[in-house]
Amino acid sequence: MPVTDNIIRREVLKRIRDDATLWADLWPLTDAYGPHGFIPPQGYDWSGFRDSSDEAITAMATKMGLQTTITWVMFTKRTEDPKLGWIEQRLDTLGIPHRRNGSSAHAPILEVAGDREAEAWTVLDQRLRNGRRIDDVRDDHPMFLQPFKP
């Protein structure tokens, strides 16, 4: 499945943001101002990248050597918030692509990138001081309401 959703867009824009050499290299692929590579009177600007189409973002990702397809695998299907949000924060910290994709009869379905699934499981396999695994703690436990500090 082509990934032109927020995951690849976010990664492309994050890499472009502070790298002037990428701006010059990737500007010809932008289409926010109409024709590809059109340079407005003010010159290159952030909105030219930010507002480009999904196709343009995918072209930029390809030129930067980023993966533009993700095979999603189900990670959780019985986990509710706030625990689910807590898990997502940790996946973000690890840079593991994830998304909520529909619901089971019990809770939202959380999917992760298939090539990072083993790494994602380390989040649920963490042990607390009492020896319990995160996966064994109830979804509404107060610990999941605490601000996350990486």
Q: State the CATH architecture of the largest domain.
A: 2-Layer Sandwich
Helix and strand sequence:
HHHHEHEEH
Mean pLDDT: 89
Q: Name the structural class.
A: alpha+beta
Helix/strand layout:
Layout: H1 6-17, H2 20-26, H3 46-50, H4 54-63, E1 72-76, H5 83-94, E2 98-103, E3 108-113, H6 117-124
Antiparallel strand pairs: 1-3, 2-3
Helix pairs in contact: 1-4
Description:
- With 150 residues, the protein is of the alpha+beta class.
- 36% of the residues lie in helices and 11% in strands.
- It folds into two domains: 6-63, no CATH class; 72-145, 2-Layer Sandwich (Alpha-Beta Plaits), CATH 3.30.70.1530.
- It has helices spanning 6-17, 20-26, 46-50, 54-63, 83-94, 117-124; strands at 72-76, 98-103, 108-113.
- A three-stranded antiparallel β-sheet has the order 1-3-2, covered by helices on one side.
- A hairpin with a 4-residue loop joins β2 (98-103) and β3 (108-113).
- The protein is elongated, with a radius of gyration of 19 Å.
